[in-house]
Write a structure and sequence with these properties.
This protein is of the alpha/beta class and about 280 residues long. The protein is about 35% helix and about 20% strand.
């Protein structure tokens, strides 16, 4: 069997909207990881074909492409990902855009990334703010394994300090210094949304998705504790679920924050909520 025949055979097994992109990503990751393109009429070994078919079968069953690849890019930084860690998404780059804009002229900003997961936000900020000191806060042991791997490999990782702590338990955050910026993409799905998520998302860790009955548990806890973590005029930036920005703004106002603004992602959804310390 040739590479072309294998590709065409596997393509017929996929029916989801992003099938062409997903299959090409899988194909190039396995057969041309160094960038060299295989001749389409060359013969593929039976063993390689078997491995590829197994990956395509899992993809067809709803297993995330990113986990099959073992790596995904965020803000031009390749990150190790797999079961147990949230997959970085383009929506979250809106938070990094805002942080870079707001901190761009600041010398030696001190930043904490709550619910850091793979380290996507932490590493993007450390890379593009070379004077920054970043603290990546994460609780999940599964996510921490990827976080340590990514911090050890990514550019700017030497300026990222990992803190194993629970952001819902302020006492566990005692090692943090005062911050210029607290940034977070916390779990924010409601109980109902968790029942309705697509098959691919069901493979992601529930701990990174479950925001409590109304999806706002982490926002309330972080907003209540954040004033004691932030320097004067310090900033708080949250990612918001697609219907939550208004509620998050209300929570921030109730905790004394001011200069509250909302930014949209590339899809036009209110995705990023920014506020200044009381």
């Amino acid at each position: 069997m040739t590479y072309d025949q294998l590709y065409r055979e596997c393509r017929r097994k996929l029916t989801h909207d992003t099938a062409d992109f997903d299959l090409s990503q899988l194909f190039h990751a396995q057969f041309s990881p160094d960038g060299r393109i295989c001749r389409s009429d060359a013969e593929v070994s039976a063993e390689e074909a078997f491995v590829f078919r197994q990956k395509v079968r899992r993809l067809a069953d709803g297993y995330p492409l990113q986990y099959l690849l073992g790596e995904w890019e965020f803000y031009s930084i390749p990150l190790a990902v797999g079961e147990g860690v949230l997959i970085p998404r383009p929506d979250t780059e809106t938070l990094v855009d805002a942080a870079l804009e707001l901190l761009g002229g600041m010398e030696h900003p001190v930043i904490a990334d709550y619910c850091a997961g793979s380290g996507a936000i932490s590493l993007a900020l450390a890379h593009f703010l070379p004077q920054a000191q970043v603290y990546a806060v994460e609780l999940s042991s599964e996510a921490l394994s990827y976080l340590y791997t990514n911090v050890g490999a990514a550019p700017g990782g030497e300026r990222v300090t990992i803190i194993e702590a629970d952001v819902l338990n302020p006492a566990s955050l005692s090692d943090l210094p005062l911050l210029d910026l607290l940034i977070s993409n916390p779990p924010y799905l409601t109980e109902q949304e968790l029942e309705e998520i697509p098959p691919q998302v069901r493979h992601e860790p529930r701990i990174a998705l479950d925001g409590g009955p109304d999806g706002l548990r982490f926002y309330r806890a972080i907003a209540a504790d954040a004033p004691s973590r932030l320097k004067e005029n310090g900033l708080l930036i949250f990612e918001a679920g697609y219907t939550q920005a208004g509620q998050i703004c209300d929570i921030l106002r109730q905790n004394g924050f001011h200069e509250i603004t909302v930014r949209k992602d590339l899809a036009g959804i209110d995705r990023c909520v920014i506020a200044r310390r009381p």
